[in-house]
Amino acid sequence: MTLKEKINAxxxxxxxxxxxxxxxxVDVAPASEVVPGMRDKLILHSGPPVTWERxxxxxxxxAIGMCLFEGWAxxxxxxxxxxxxxxxxxxxxxxxxxxxxxxxxxxxxxxVWVVQNKAFGNRAQCRQVESFQQxxxxxxxxxxxxxxxxxxxxxxxxxxxxxxxxxxxKPLIARALQMGDEMHNRVVASSSIFxxxxxxxxxxxxxxxxxxxxxxxYIGNHPFLFLGLAMAAxxxxxxxxxxxxxxxxxxxxxxxxxxxxxxVSGLDGEWFTAPSPRVKGLFLPGWxxxxxxxxxxxxxxxxxxxxxxxxxxxxxxxxTFTGGTAEEALGFSREMRNISVGRxxxxxxxxxxxxxxxxxxxxRKVMQTNTVPxxxxxxxxxxxGHSIIGGGxxxxxxxxxxKALTRFGEKYKE
Amino acid sequence: MMPMKLEDLLRTKPVFVNVGVxxxxxxxxxxxxxxxxxxxxxxxxxxxxxxxxxDDLL
Lengths: 414, 58
Known about the structure:
Chain A is built from 14 helices and 16 strands.
């Protein structure tokens, strides 16, 4: 078998595993219970590995927030001192079968969605999605959202999810994609379907009336609720495609606000990085481009699995958040076919005649066509202490793919 | 004698197929011509080393 044949066979296997994924929400739990390798004085973060010294402002702010949330520090100044002195460890979520939105910070008492890929048995986790602390805001108000998630919403959802014996996400996602969602920043339909599905169980899950009412209100009014589930589902779907000998399929795209990193199946465990790009988009009132930090978050796992930018043509509603035209959005989804191994038989785009989403980004095709994936994303401030400031479209640096292909050649060419 | 089709081509307003740099087509479009754009760039953006590697892998 020639190397080209080996690569093609390996990529077909990667595609088979990705589209066979069957993600099921099986639990909502504290990270200390379910995230492999979670320990005290550890902050998991989005993107490739990064140190405090190189960390961007928003991720620093989020890390300060986690120190306050865990009670490791009494105020922001002492938290910053602890972090600068190396008293708290940092590790990427992706090294722990986990993902997190924006700064992505997860500590032992942060509760996470737990999704099991029933086709392969592996599990993946994602933390709560909100618009404050994950963007670097460590104010009392921002942290109160994390506390309510820990004390009320997450434990109540756990009781319901366990009573339901899990919630199948594949049919839910397939339906929501036909209702104008794209599973990254447009999750309005999926959030509603999920809330509808779980509501009758919530009211009879054994929790207090106050907790049930508060949780019903939370899930019924959270426009980004399902993003945490989509990210955990995406991670659970992609992990079985890791480590396939000679596969050039991308298994992770993640950013920490300092660097953009990708991982490739046949080069398992390695990160290929370049400086995080700027996001082009729209800003909330009062903010402008000069305030923005660079691209950040593990949420590009949704694009890696074939959602987000890959299906944005079917989600024109998102353009009020990211900017751009419906025609451009369709063009993005068409472009993604040129750099992917195949199509999903389950996740269909009505606006493209119900064609399947492009799945399995191939670093060879990226380099050959000079086409990098399209990612829609939120925007954080460049300094610590702020909530969300906007949203837009971003492209990974071609340099990541160039480095990965060069390394692939070194490893596999005889 | 000039073939009929060629005569037609010279008599009618041309439609352009623009390959690669989009701005070339934009100028023609602004001048009132119909332009069909084809996205194209040299493999690996003209990076010779990458192009050679791609020959072995793709």
